[in-house]
Recover the amino acids of this structure.
């Protein structure tokens, strides 16, 4: 089996978090906290296992397998089909994660879990429920507590630990969310700007379907590759409203351009992808720079599935460098939805005494980032 977790442990010392209190949860013989995280809010389902070592003060991903539901060309992923996909794969993924994290034959690798963490929202209702049922079942079987995790906070905490970003301005860009955030004195992530209609990832996915690009491995990735071949830049609407952005009108405009100009040979798919990508990424850079100026922060962290786009990282790095700052970014292993990110946010909550009672594990499709108390 191909390893899914090959990175070295990440230190917790540079994060600027509060000191971790003595554990009130179960730990193993070495005082380590180990949690299993289940993510399935959209078309990807992942199971990750994460360990915290008090001796070295590190977080270490022990395993992180995932599966992606890929619909046919021109189609999106529907809740019912996606939920069935997750139900078909969650047991095998949990087994694979456990086998990789706790290989047989070594006493120090004895199976142990302190908690089960799961995505409680936001996301698609049926897929969320499918994964929540799996989490509840494992919690009851192994008699360990549950920790419900906000999907958005999972992305942020995974990014902070993986890159060592202590107090960054966060650009969170995915299929369901587009937000610019920073940590506030109220122990929450404050949203400084966001989309007022559809998310940037949804815009890219729908445009990819409109021009017949494949969903494999993802529509956004295929747009990124097409954009590299673009030669003609089209005048695309640029819609920034204060600190917020809008993508629905841009999508409608680009779909019309594709219908009228592609057939006549006036533009190529590459030109359309290039023009769309450059425009909407520039909008994100603008509102992120404003948030940096307002907060006085010198670090920017990009998280979410769209965050692994190399062109977005390149444009952001240029802006951040001009401001004398640093960019913290990741590749597809941690930007794209995965179980380890839910385990990371969950273990932080668990270490500060936060668990979720079984009666409170109902999922919600609308669960804003700024609703969560991140007391660590």
């Amino acid at each position: 089996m191909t390893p899914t977790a090959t990175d070295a442990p990440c230190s917790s010392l540079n994060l600027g978090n509060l000191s971790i209190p003595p554990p009130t949860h179960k730990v193993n013989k070495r005082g380590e906290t180990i949690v299993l995280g289940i993510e399935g809010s959209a078309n990807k389902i992942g199971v990750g296992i994460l360990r915290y070592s008090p001796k070295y003060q590190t977080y270490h991903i022990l395993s992180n397998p995932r599966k992606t539901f890929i619909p046919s060309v021109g189609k999106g992923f529907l809740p019912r089909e996606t939920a069935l996909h997750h139900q078909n794969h969650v047991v095998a993924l949990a087994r694979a994660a456990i086998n990789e994290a706790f290989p047989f034959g070594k006493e120090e690798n004895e199976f142990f879990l302190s908690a089960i963490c799961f995505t409680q929202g936001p996301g698609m209702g049926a897929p969320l429920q499918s994964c929540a049922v799996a989490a509840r079942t494992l919690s009851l079987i192994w008699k360990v507590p549950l920790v419900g995790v906000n999907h958005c906070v999972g992305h942020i905490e995974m990014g902070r630990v993986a890159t060592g970003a202590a107090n960054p301005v966060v650009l969170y860009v995915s299929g369901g969310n587009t937000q610019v955030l920073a940590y506030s004195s109220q122990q929450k992530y404050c949203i400084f700007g966001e989309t007022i209609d559809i998310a940037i990832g949804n815009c890219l996915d729908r445009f990819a379907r409109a021009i017949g690009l494949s969903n494999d491995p993802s529509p956004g990735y295929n747009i990124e590759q097409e954009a590299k071949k673009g030669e003609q830049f089209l005048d695309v609407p640029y819609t920034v409203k204060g600190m917020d952005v809008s993508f629905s009108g841009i999508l409608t405009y680009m779909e019309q351009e594709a219908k009228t100009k592609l057939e006549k040979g006036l533009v190529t798919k590459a030109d359309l992808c290039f023009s769309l990508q450059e425009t909407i990424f520039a909008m994100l850079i603008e509102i992120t720079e404003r948030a940096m100026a307002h907060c006085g922060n010198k670090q920017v962290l990009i998280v979410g599935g769209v965050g692994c786009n190399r062109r977005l990282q390149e444009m952001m790095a240029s802006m951040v460098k001009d401001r004398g700052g640093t960019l913290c970014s990741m590749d597809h292993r941690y930007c794209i939805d995965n179980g380890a990110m839910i385990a990371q946010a969950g273990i932080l909550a668990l270490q500060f005494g936060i668990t979720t009672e079984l009666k409170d594990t109902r999922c919600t499709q609308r669960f804003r980032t700024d609703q969560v108390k991140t007391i660590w």
Summary: Residues 83 and 127 are 4 Å apart (CA to CA). The mean pLDDT is 96. The chain is about 40% helix and 20% strand.
